[in-house]
Amino acid sequence: MIGYVTLGTNDFPRAVGFYDSLFGSLGIKRFMEEENYFVAWAAAPDQPSVAVSVPFNKEAASVGNGTMVALVMDSPEKVDALYNKAMELGATDEGQPGFRPTDATSGFYAGYFRDLDGNKLNAFCIVEG
Predict the structure, then answer these.
(1) 87, 91, 97, 95: which is closest to 114 by C-alpha?
(2) Could you report the per-residue pLDDT of 15-48, keeping only the tens digit for each?
(3) The domain defined by 4-56+69-127 carries CATH number 3.10.180.10
């Protein structure tokens, strides 16, 4: 359903470095870019992507309240690893990995964080009980 998501940044080199490292930990590389303006990462060109960009209107980038990018993983271990990598890169915790609701032992497992520009992301998977 989702083709791509673009996140605004006020510090393009810093944002690109963060996502190069974060997505690199998943083996995902850049697949499209325009120098000093836009970079997109995807597992394959025909797969959904996440991009960072300087806002087209040249105004300051700001975080959308209630906006979040959800990154699907195939195991709780990969959720944990991506969340921990984000923390290592300087992200801010928005909810440590675990089941939602917290007393569940299967279902929705996710970890939430904000990138260096304050954009909210989560890594999640569905665990069959």
Answers:
(1) 91
(2) 999 999 999 999 999 999 999 999 999 999 999 9
(3) yes
